[in-house]
Amino acid sequence: MDTDHADPADLAALRAAFDVDAGEQPLGWDAVHAFEAEHGVVLPEPYRTFVAEVCDGSSSGPPDFGLVPLAALPEDWGDGRPQRVLAHPFPLTEMWVWEDDPRPDEEIDPLLEQVFDHGSIVLGTDGCGMYWHLIVSGPHRGHVWQINGEGAAPFGAEFGFSTGEAGFAGWVKHWAAHKPWFDTA
Questions:
Q1: Count of domains observed in the chain
Q2: What is the pTM of this model?
């Protein structure tokens, strides 16, 4: 997975997967650069080129309720949440089911805030509090994670939960092939 250079084949697959007529207009490079400067990150490829040149969000999915625009959050994200800090590294590198974690809430709650609000942009939701995040800073930069009320897991065959390739393009291709998100069970 190359997060620094957009593969033309990946961009072609992304264009084919989304109904760009159902999507938002692309942001353009000036807006992408402004977003990156404001948040202290460089978006991983091919997502970066996708929002600059193809479309910035789409109701045609993925995920189930559509791809939200770059600077937006899903409607069910909730109010009164901590400020998201994209430049702070996303803290996880492997699945974590906090629902089963024996540590006290006083230890878990600050970690949860980091998981939900540090180092990622929210791509969208499958409903019921199941959010898809693209990691923009930290060791998993460029990977897509599903984060929900019970835990967090990375998407991609290398993590054992899916047959899809890791990263934004792999996540979209998996969806476009009509495969279940977690298809190895």
A1: 1
A2: 0.94
